Amino acid sequence: MPDLLKMRSWLFAPGDSARKLAKAIASPADIVLLDLEDAVATENKPLARQVVHDCLQANPAERPRLWVRVNPLDGPHTLRDLAAIMPAHPGGIMLPKVYGRQDVERLDHYLSAFETAHGLAEGSTPVIVLVTETAEAMFHTGDYKAAPRVVALTWGAEDLADSIGASTNRNADGSYGFTYELARSLCLLGAAAAEVAAIETIQGDYRNIDSLKARAAKARRDGFRGMLAIHPAQVEVINAAFTPTAEEIAEAQTIVDLFAANPGVGTIGYQGGMLDRPHLSRAQQLLRQV
């Protein structure tokens, strides 16, 4: 199972382009998502499966960080995707366009069968779930606690807009509309309830680095533990945003040490204010990210 603390950047790469896959793998992305879904036209999916399989086989040392976004379970491609890639031992699976927890449980059964068939430990392939891409899924974002294999939840706005028949998911000023901000919040809350990592969605304008810095910093403040990327140029910005600074680490350690030196107390005076147990919990969580 991958280290949840090293899931800062998740870089998509189209599965039908060996060149782009190689470029993504050479990047400092924590996770590379070899994409068999939206980035690949229907007629190219057989080719993409072979390219992704060969890429996994050719990069055994990198496999823990090489995940595959398969096609959604409500279409005809998922089992073909898994049959092609599981012999090459992908590091994990991204499941898109779910309708609820039942899709994760169904995928778990499929993965167990393929793991057993190919000599892998059953349950060894982790999963990240896109939990807001269908209208129905929005009502089930809190249902993933102890869901098999799930280590992270993320969200998306484009397919959700399509699912509800919206002409756009943006306000006039370019910000997300209410429904899509709700999707973001439900993903964050669902991940917290499930005790897994929440991953922020993509920024489509990969050239706007200043905007990305601001968005990634806000995502971390809000409680997300990483962010999806669509271009290698975004990766280092995302990694930096989700890496605690030396000052943050020092302050968190001070808070932990203060409580350790005063066992049993509920509050402690600190720098003119009061610290309580939630402050200690947040400090401990930050230190686990180091």
TrEMBL record:
Family: Belongs to the HpcH/HpaI aldolase family.
Organism in which the protein naturally occurs: Sphingomonas echinoides
InterPro entries: Aldolase/citrate-lyase_domain, Citrate_lyase_beta/mcl1/mcl2, Pyrv/PenolPyrv_kinase-like_dom, Pyrv_kinase-like_dom_sf
Protein's name according to its UniProt entry: CoA ester lyase
Alphabetic keyword roster: Lyase, Magnesium, Metal-binding
Domain of life: Bacteria
Domain HpcH/HpaI aldolase/citrate lyase as annotated: residue spans: 8-232
GO function terms (MF aspect): lyase activity
Membrane-spanning residues: none
Required cofactor(s): Mg(2+)
